[in-house]
Write a structure and sequence with these properties.
Oligomer: single chain
Distance between the termini: 65 Å
Order of helices and strands: HHHHH
Helix content: over 70%
Number of domains: 2
Number of helices: 5
Shape: flat
């Protein structure tokens, strides 16, 4: 009996250390992607808060990604998660940071509608698994609905892409 408990404790410690390292790796990748997106978006005109230019939103989004990645990195290095407690949630947040960084890079070449559709579909299938019908419906509704609100109703210029 003593060996079994000792074995479980050893395994839990290894799993905890492994998850802490994985979170640190994901945080590093998110930090690098966020910093690259911040650098690239700084090449665009920035504008002001009352009159934003094309680089305003991507730059602030990149800053947020970098800050969240730094928080995740500090957490993963200073407080490794205990086995089964919070590590899945942290991994999902880190994955979302990476996906949002990719969204920032792909927004201009693919356009707002395609990128937003893919982002919402990914979130509803990979991060919070939903049925395909629900995920596809919500992705279309979100992409088209937000496009109508921002591009049509508010006249905000959005990246067009191939569509």
């Amino acid at each position: 009996m003593g060996r079994v408990r000792q074995g479980r404790g050893w395994r839990a410690k290894v799993v905890s250390q492994t998850m802490g390292r994985r979170d640190a790796i994901v945080a590093t990748v998110a930090l690098a992607l966020g910093a690259a997106a911040m650098f690239e978006s700084s090449k665009l005109a920035f504008g002001t808060i009352h009159s934003p230019a094309p680089g305003f939103f991507p730059w602030w989004t990149s800053v947020l990604i970098v800050l969240l990645a730094l928080v995740l990195m500090v957490q993963s290095l200073t407080r490794p998660s205990k086995a089964g407690q919070g590590s899945g949630r942290i991994a999902k947040v880190a994955l979302l940071l990476v996906v949002l960084s990719a969204y920032t890079f792909l927004l201009d070449p693919l356009g707002y509608l395609i990128c937003t559709f893919i982002l919402v579909l990914f979130m509803l299938r990979a991060l919070d698994p939903q049925r395909w019908t629900v995920a596809l419906g919500m992705a279309v509704l979100t992409a088209v609905g937000s496009y109508v609100v921002f591009a049509v109703w508010l006249s905000v210029p959005l990246p067009r892409g191939p569509l």
